[in-house]
Design a protein that fits this description.
Strand order of the largest sheet: 3-2-1-4-5
Protein name: SCP2 domain-containing protein
InterPro entries: SCP2_sterol-bd_dom (IPR003033), SCP2_sterol-bd_dom_sf (IPR036527)
CATH architecture: 2-Layer Sandwich
Helix content: 25-40%
Distance between the termini: 26 Å
CATH class: Alpha Beta
Pfam family, one: SCP2
Organism: Arabis alpina (Alpine rock-cress)
Order of helices and strands: HHEEEEHHEH
CATH topology: Nonspecific Lipid-transfer Protein, Chain A
Length: about 120
């Protein structure tokens, strides 16, 4: 069941492309943090797919983090909630308050995780 197609996969693919553009490189320079994003098809903690959004190197990879040290912050979402946050339809703070997003790690790093780091909705 780990091969479930997530709506978030398409966003992560676009994020990879976005980070190779000038706008994406500006995001990388501005943030300089590494995020782990766990996305569950239906229920948090079950059958999660892990992505690493490395805003130090400007890369998005699927799977566990293999760089030096550890990730700055880890987020857990259900697929639909991640799509809402990434497209700007749900504020990340509201998602956290509602329990739609769980955070581990540095809260100051987590606060830099905003819809601004994603490609604009017109590209989604």
């Amino acid at each position: 069941m780990a091969n479930t197609q997530l709506k978030s996969d398409a966003i992560m693919d676009m994020m990879k492309e976005h980070l190779s553009t000038d706008a994406g490189k500006a995001v990388t320079e501005k943030i300089g943090l590494v995020y782990q994003i766990n996305i569950a098809p239906k229920k948090l903690g079950f059958e999660e797919v892990t992505y690493i959004v490395d805003l130090k190197k400007g890369q998005v990879t699927k799977g566990k983090y293999e760089g030096e040290g550890k990730v700055d912050a880890t987020f857990s979402f259900k697929d639909d909630d991640f799509v809402k946050v990434a497209t700007g339809k749900m504020n990340p703070q509201i998602a956290f308050i509602r329990g739609a997003m769980k955070i581990k790690g540095s809260l100051s790093a987590a606060q830099k995780f905003t819809p601004d780091i994603f490609p604009k909705p017109s590209k989604l």
